[in-house]
Each structure stands twice: as C-alpha cells, then as structure tokens.
Amino acid sequence: MITPADYPTNDPNRSGVSWAAIFAGAAAAAALSLILLVLGTGLGLAATSPWADEGASAKALGISTIIWLLITQILASGLGGYIAGRLRMKWANLHGDEVYFRDTAHGFLAWAVATLVAAMLVLGTAGNLLGAGATAVSGAATTAAAGVAGSDSQGKDPMGYFVDSLFRAQGPVAVSDDAANGVAARILTRSLAQGGTLAPEDRTYLAQVVAQRTRLTQPEAEARVDQVYAQLQQAKVEAKQAADAATKAAAWTALWTFVALLCGAFFASLAALFGGRQRDRVQWLEASQADYNLRHASAPIR
Questions:
Q1: Is residue 5 part of a domain?
Q2: How far apart are alpha carbons 110 and 101 in whole angstroms?
Q3: Where are the transmembrane segments (predicted)?
Q4: Could you give the CA distance from residue 82 to residue 76 in angstroms, rounded to a whole number?
Q5: Distance of CA 266 to CAs 35, 94, 195, 273, Å?
Q6: What is the pTM (predicted TM-score) of this model?
Q7: Is 81 exposed, middle or buried, given 0-12, 13-18 or 19+ CB atoms closer than 10 A?
Q8: What are the tens digits of pLDDT across the range 163-173?
Q9: Domain of 218?
C-alpha cells in the first residue's frame, strides 16, 4: 500500500515552489517572445513603404502592432505557464484549493521571470531603437517649433528685440544681410511667442526693410510680410499637432502594453493550472502503478 510518506514532497518543511520548472517555463516564454517579436518586426517592415501613397497606413500599423503584441504575450506566456505547471513536482495529499493556488502561482512566476529577462535582454536594445524613433518624431516637431520660435527666444539673446527697438530709425538703414536677417527674425520670433498678429509698427518696419532689399513697393512688401507671417503661424500649428500626435501615440502604446502584460500574466497562470492538472492525472497514476508492482514483486512469499 502506498502511503503519503513514500513521497518526499509531503515534507511540510519543503518549499512549495518548483524553481526548476519556473525557470524552464520562463526560458521557453522568453524564447518564443523573441521569435514572435522578430517575426512581427519583419511583417511590419514588409507592410511599410517609403512612399507616402503605398504600404499600410500609420493607423493600420498601430492597430496591427497592438494585436501582434497581444498575440505574442498570450502565446509565449501560455507556453511558459504550461511548461512550468507540467514540469513541477508532485504535490501529494494536498487540498485541491492549495494545488490550484500553487499551479497559478507557478504560472505567474514563470511569466514574471520571463518578463524580467525580456526587459533586461530584449528591451535594452529595443528601447534604444524605440527611443531613437521617438526622438526622431519629437525632434521633427521640436525642430519645426524651434525654427518657428527662433533661437533668441530660447535664452541666447532675450533682449534682442528690445535693443533693436531702441535704435530703430524712421526708415531702415543700410546694414549687412546678416544684421537685417537677425532683426527680422527677432521681430517674427517675438510676435509668434506672443501668439498674436504682428504689431503695426513691426509690420511697417519689416515691410520697409523688405522693400529696401527687394525693390518692391511698400504695399507689395507689406503683402509679402503678411504672407510669410501666415506661413510661420501655420508651421507653428503643424508643429504643435505633430507633438500632440506623438504624445498620444506614446500614451496609447504604454496603455496597450500594460493590457498585453496583464493578458500574459492571466494566460500564464491559466496554462500552468491546465498543465499541472495534466501532470497530476498522468504522472500520479503511472507512479502509483509502478510502485505497486515494485512492492508486490519484491515482497517475500510466506
């Protein structure tokens, strides 16, 4: 007759955690995650095109990326949890609720270890690539805004506009091109920073400078000033829109990554429970029959 004492796993002082099974499941989950991420990257690159009118749109790529991330987490975490549950040691004579809890914990721990490994090994490189991409996206908006706002308003010469106003004559004087460009840039920068239209005196002075250097009439120069200033305002609006879009994309990416990780933890625990139940049903019967045959074969005949 087989008693609980025949199984060393019944020792109350023995830990209920099978770390070997957990690390085996975590290794499998991390490996499958890497394979699926590489596959997803290849499919994404194949679907994109350097031409604006070809390839998948940005919205389609974003949705497909989220779906693929969810699939990757479900498959990889499920495999890791199943392996952790199937390979753990036998817990004999334990209450069903305790076995349920231990299997679930093993799946969760396998997912946690795999996630930490991926964070250290995979995300170290992928984070640099994503950071470079985010820097490029935000840099485009920042460059546009910086081109609109100019460098003087950023602290190099914050008093430049007021200094120019001190020496502003009734009409433009003959100065070098660099000096004229600097005065015009400071006027446009301050007007954009104020968020309104050009002040009448600034508009008139800029038109006089333009008329002097382009041989346009005063009305034509004023029309050109208005046109250029409108273009600058439009560029500023587009820069803000690009920055807002990049911020929203980063926020949605973080939220869906959080959802994907939660799904991975859930499916890892569920798969570990399934694997543990299969391990108990198959291995317990085989072990019991083998021990029974061995005991009866070696028993002395009386």
A1: no
A2: 14
A3: 20-48, 60-84, 104-123, 254-274
A4: 10
A5: 21, 24, 51, 11
A6: 0.60
A7: buried
A8: 565 446 566 66
A9: 152-237
